[in-house]
Design brief:
The structure is a single chain. By secondary structure, the protein is of the alpha+beta class. The chain has two domains: about 55 residues, no CATH class; about 100 residues, no CATH class. The protein contains six helices and seven strands. The strands form two sheets. The protein has a four-stranded antiparallel β-sheet with strand order 1-2-3-4. A three-stranded antiparallel β-sheet has the order 5-6-7. A hairpin with a 4-residue loop joins β3 and β4. The chain binds zinc ion. Pfam families: Acetone_carb_G.
Length: about 190
């Protein structure tokens, strides 16, 4: 595939993502996109990066989307998590949830705001955590876990290996060791 053809296909794919993510797509198109991913994963990847890059109004390069509001971006040579609204969470190896505004539901009264009577977890055992973006208060994630359970790290990609070994491209940011830094961050920032 030559460069021109590649650019054209990335562009077509961006249009497709636009329709899919705005839920304007007919169902057969959705299936075609899912099936098409296997044929052309690189085009699919470039298109999704470009799609989000055009949506946000900041300039840092998106390295990998986490969801439709959070992205791993390259900031001053370091991969960090940044929100579409512009809020910066810090090193992507620290679970972004620990920087969120968090609402915890752990009594019947709180559960009943969103669940029908006794269809919620028992507050003696479980709590429901809601993670809100500190920049815009968008609800980013929820988790129902036993009380005291560590914050669930949903997605920690080995991003350097992904670029170098899977995409076979140089990593377009400062290389970092693949490591979960969440506990270290908590240890250094909480004073008892
Ligand atoms: Zn936000």
């Amino acid at each position: 595939m030559n460069e021109e053809e590649k650019v054209k296909r990335v562009e077509q794919r961006i249009q497709l993502l636009e329709r899919l993510l705005q839920a304007k797509s007919p169902i057969d198109e959705v299936f075609r996109v899912i099936a098409g991913d296997k044929e052309d994963p690189e085009i699919a990847f470039d298109a999704i990066i470009e799609y989000f890059q055009r949506k946000v109004n900041w300039k840092e390069k998106i390295l990998l989307p986490i969801n439709d509001h959070l992205f791993i971006v390259c900031k001053d040579g370091k991969p960090i998590v940044k929100a579409a609204c512009g809020y910066e969470f810090g090193d992507f190896r620290v679970n972004w949830k620990v920087f969120c505004k968090i609402r915890v539901r752990r009594n019947t009264e709180d559960y009943l705001e969103i669940y029908p009577w006794w269809q919620h977890a028992h507050p003696y055992f479980m709590e429901l955590r809601e993670y809100y973006c500190p920049g815009c208060y968008k609800l980013l994630a929820t988790e129902a876990v036993p009380i005291g359970h560590p914050v669930v790290f949903e997605f920690l990609p080995d991003i350097v290996t992904f670029y170098e070994k899977w995409l076979k491209r140089p990593f377009p940011c400062g290389k970092v060791e693949f490591k979960d830094l969440t506990n270290e961050y908590i240890k250094n920032s909480i004073k008892i």
